[in-house]
Amino acid sequence: MAPPHGDDGNDVAEERAIKTIVIVIAMQKEAIPLIKKFNLSQDMNPVFPKGVPWIRYHGIYRDLSINLIWPGKDSILGVNSVCTVSASLVTYASIQALKPDLIINAGTSGGFKAKGACIGDVYISSDVAFHDRRIRIPGYDVYGVGARQSFSTPNLLKELNLKVAKLSTGDSLDMSPEDEAYITANGATLKDMEGGAVAYVAYLLSVPAIFIKAVTDIIDGDKPTAEEFRQNLAAVTIALDGAVTQVVDFICGKSMSEL
């Protein structure tokens, strides 16, 4: 998700101080603490097309322009607009409208205890891929998985001592045997519904992207996923938002090459 290396323009961009970031976050409960923390205001003159439910909160925090983008709620069902379609659309629209130096996709995820994940753990994702785009035709199979590396942040990881793991994305909360096989092949510790979509758009438009994920449910545990997710969401959101705040504080005043 980083701009290709070896281009003089990109080298200059990596040395400039980071001025504008976009935080893509799928659920309102995940977003509200960050809106309060950074004292963000809702955009009353939306930069997005008329009629879409997407909401932008924005403000200045320590000279950093923060734009938190929440895809809003489905206009008929009133539920959060989760999953890959909404994530890809709002990421594309946000990049076009706001020209960010960096994208942060923050959210909750499932985790595998076999890979060491525990409820409340917060990770920076090193790699992102899909597990439900199964196209068993040579070439298309690799395209379907869509594996990409996140932007490398060695200094941030060292300073904040965050865990690192691979993330696998799909549009279903449950996990079929086919999904599990692909997640295993992806080497993933984490499973979410947005990361791969954000990664794809960020890659297309050459915008660096990092992924911060907090574990709400243990996929290979003994509790139903939906039940465990609802039970832990509030507490895990506190951990997620604490980590996002630490990351933003670290970013302030730095260039991409200093991350």
UniProtKB/TrEMBL annotation:
Gene3D superfamilies: Nucleoside phosphorylase domain. It holds the Pfam family PNP_UDP_1. It comes from the Eukaryota. GO terms for biological process: L-methionine salvage from methylthioadenosine; nucleoside metabolic process. Residues 20-247 form the Nucleoside phosphorylase domain. GO terms for molecular function: methylthioadenosine nucleosidase activity. This is Nucleoside phosphorylase domain-containing protein. The lineage of its organism: Eukaryota, Viridiplantae, Streptophyta, Embryophyta, Tracheophyta.
